[in-house]
Specification:
The structure holds two protein chains of two kinds.
Chain A (H helix, E strand, L loop, with lengths): L2 H27 L1 H4 L3 E2 H5 L9 E7 L12 E7 L4 E7 L11 E8 L5 E8 L8 H14 L8
Parallel strand pairs in A: 1-2, 4-6
Antiparallel strand pairs in A: 2-3, 2-5, 3-4, 5-6
Chain B lengths: L5 H10 L2 H33 L13 H28 L2 H32 L8 H22 L3 H15 L2 H11 L19 H33 L4 H11 L1
Helix pairs in contact in B: 2-8, 3-4, 3-6, 3-8, 4-5, 4-6, 4-8, 5-6, 5-7
The chains are: A alpha/beta, B mainly alpha.
């Protein structure tokens, strides 16, 4: 490599290193804002804004879905396997909404610390399998006593 | 005194010459078309017909056979564009400049397809067309980077200066590539984590994975075809006053 070409190569590498450092610092600074949702533990610990709207993510606890007045109002409990938050929502739920499924709700906490959602989004996990396989995994889970399908 | 083996170096020097690259592209193209058609037809047949339905999403998941390869290609093409841009900057290789600018519209199209198919899937599955989470936003920025490269190239009259400008822009934008890939790990996102491209074994059933990989390879060859076709035109435009192009035109007119 001639000295001129080497110089150009070094310049390019320096430029990329500079950009990477700047972006890393910027992302570090905005880390909190880049999080799409708060976990239930964070909300229980009081880290979520009290007055403003925010998004809450977690797994729908098995058997927690109830419709108190048989209307569109639905109440369920979200967990991150450590702390739980109760959510109330009036509206149509997405296809993937079900017990044991990860969801993200947008809304605010009321005085009783119940999360009043204005929007509920289902979070899909990264697992793809035919129904028969999911069924057999579930049976294995019962036998082994540990979850085989891990999702958010 | 070189670390690069001699035949590779010879190949590199021959490829650096526009007429050689032009005829090489002509020889490569029919093969690429045959391979692409075989892969795409078998991949689509296996993916849309033979592959089992998903335990949660039913048949809707089949959009991954377009969405995922397109998203992978959007990153792959960008890296190709940035590397050839760097080669063009350092070694002043004309063909590298041509490959860089020829890749931009194709990469932009792949990014656009990934965003649109993701949005179409997101409405029924997530319950929304679009969210501003880290993965979706960084992929949108990638689209803007591509569009920036295309418009910057168009805005500068002298194509050699234009190539240098877009190479620098492309190299600066490379920082976005790891951000897109790791966004689902670094931050909470609505978009799910990686299924295939991770250290662990893929969390997808093998019958669903094979068509996905077939489609991904098919997309690679499609990119090869599209890029060579665009590059051929770009070479003719840049070399229009050279002897070999004049000769080529005379031969075609006869």
């Amino acid at each position: 490599m001639t000295p001129l070409k080497k110089q150009r190569l070094i310049l390019i590498l320096l430029m990329m290193a500079g950009v990477a450092t700047a972006v890393t610092f910027a992302l570090k600074a905005f880390n909190e804002n880049l999080m799409y949702f708060f976990s239930t533990t964070e909300v229980v610990a009081g880290k979520a804004p009290e007055q403003a709207k925010f998004r809450l993510g977690g797994m729908v606890v098995e058997g927690s879905i109830e419709r108190p007045d048989n209307g569109l109002m639905v109440r369920f409990v979200l967990t991150d396997y450590s702390k739980q938050v109760t959510v109330e929502y009036i509206g149509i739920l997405p296809d993937l909404f079900r017990e044991g499924q990860g969801i993200v709700a947008n809304g605010r906490l009321n005085k009783q610390n119940v999360f009043i959602a204005e929007e509920v989004l289902a979070k899909h996990d990264e697992n793809y399998m035919p129904p028969e396989v999911a069924e057999s995994l579930k049976n294995k889970e019962k036998d082994l006593g540990e979850p085989q399908i891990t999702g958010q | 005194m070189s670390i690069v083996p001699a035949p590779l170096l010879r190949f590199y020097h021959r490829m650096a010459s526009p007429p050689h690259f032009y005829s090489f592209a002509d020889k490569l193209l029919p093969w690429f078309v045959v391979i692409f058609v075989l892969l795409a037809v078998s991949g689509l047949y296996m993916g849309l017909y033979l592959a089992p339905t998903d335990y949660q999403q039913g048949d809707s998941y089949r959009i991954i056979y377009i969405h995922v390869p397109a998203a992978w290609m959007s990153l792959f093409v960008y890296v190709v564009m940035a590397i050839s841009g760097a080669i063009g900057l350092i070694w002043r290789m004309k063909i590298a400049d041509v490959v860089a600018i020829s890749s931009a519209p194709i990469g932009a199209s792949f990014t656009f397809i990934a965003l649109v198919t993701g949005s179409l899937w997101g409405k029924p599955m997530w319950g929304t067309w679009w969210v501003w989470d880290a993965r979706l936003t960084s992929e949108l920025i990638l689209l803007f980077l591509y569009l920036g490269v295309i418009s910057l190239y168009g805005a500068i009259e002298d194509k050699r200066t234009a190539s240098r400008a877009i190479s620098i822009l492309a190299l600066v934008g490379v920082v976005n590539i790891p951000i897109i890939h790791y966004s689902v790990e670094w931050w909470n996102t609505l978009h799910q984590g990686a299924t295939v491209a991770k250290m662990d074994k893929p969390s997808i059933h093998i019958d669903m994975l094979i068509p996905l990989l077939l489609m991904a390879t098919a997309f690679k060859f499609y990119y090869g075809i599209a890029m060579l076709l665009v590059a051929k035109v770009e070479i003719l435009k840049r070399e229009e006053n050279s002897q070999w192009v004049q000769k080529l035109v005379e031969e075609t007119n006869e």
